[in-house]
Amino acid sequence: xxxAVPVLLLTVAGLVPVWRYQxxxxxxxxxxxxxxxxxxxxxxSSASSPSSLRVVPGTAVDxxxxxxxxxxxxxxxxxxxxxxxxxxxxxxxxxxxxxLVTETLKAQSAHIDSVSGATITSQGYKESLQAxxxxxxx
Amino acid sequence: MRRVEHVMGFPVSLRIDDEGExxxxxxxGDGGGFRAAADAVFAWLHEADARFSPFLPQSEVSRYxxxxxAYGALSADLAEVLGLCEEYRAATGGAFDVRLPGRExxxxxxxxxxxxxxxxxxxAAAGARRFCLNxxxxxxxxxxxxxxxxxxxxxxxxxxxxxxxxDAAVATSGRYERGDxxxxxxxxxPVTGLLSxxxxxxxxxxxxxxxxxxxxxxxxxxxxxAARPGCEVFAVDAGRSVxxxxxxxxx
Lengths: 138, 251
Fold this sequence. Notes:
By secondary structure, chain A is of the alpha+beta class. Chain A has 3 helices and 6 strands. Chain A has a domain of 90 residues. Chain B has one domain: T-fold. In chain B, the strands form 3 sheets. An 8-stranded antiparallel sheet of chain B has the order 1-2-3-4-7-10-11-12. Chain A: It comes from Streptomyces monashensis.
């Protein structure tokens, strides 16, 4: 598996020109969610629209460990996510590099039991949401 | 049962909700019998502070940082912490680094999650099944569902998401409480690509180290953390967009 990763990354890199010159990307069946924790490299940016998402399936690569195929999501010229379409079932390949969801930041005041945030200081605690939760309960 | 104490310079809020598992006569209602376990939690956190604080000159971390303790003579606990530091340094290509030029050796980012996770282990070992331990914004939850809010990076009194957490940990790294204190070890400069990054993981050891390391990576951080096994990610970038994993258990 470790040896397959460079091969896959080359495949990913090879997809950049594929996308540029064949913008009509086909669809691919998501065979298995099994995957590898490969890095998500970014390609040099260009003048194309930075917000458009484009999903491009890679070619299946036959390796000694089995057949691998990735799918790359581009945002403009940058790789936004890599997803494994095909990978041999193997303990090291069972997690996916998920396609990340982008949303608008919202603010809400919901009922909560606890708050996760950047480490607050003891001085800052008095003013914090967690202090309000602790005070309300006692 | 609830208790708040200040350890390591931050507040630690403990809530134990177990019913019918009272080990001794507790007068505080549900979970009151876990007073001894709660005592053990805070005693351990004070001990961890004394041993691993880089701000105390006689702590093992300070003595190791000054070269007064050989690696082979380290306590098993500090050796474990250093192993975690090295794991995350290697996994981030050096962006997360507890040894930066011109700075004290500072493994705080790993010590916090690791020590609080061990504190949660003390509660579980004492028989507590439903509890929520919040250490300065890092949360270990057991026996949920618990509703854990993610603090809005720009509005201290509001949250930007609520997670449903059963048996897992949530940690957040950000700049809004302590300023630009997280440096990219590759450049030595403060990280500015993100406002905050939250990780949900099976343990706080993983959640806290992953959140800090991903924050140090900047814009690449959310995708990096998302690829770590067992981790779900919620990040707010400098443009105030949310980037999250599809599997995040939003309430």
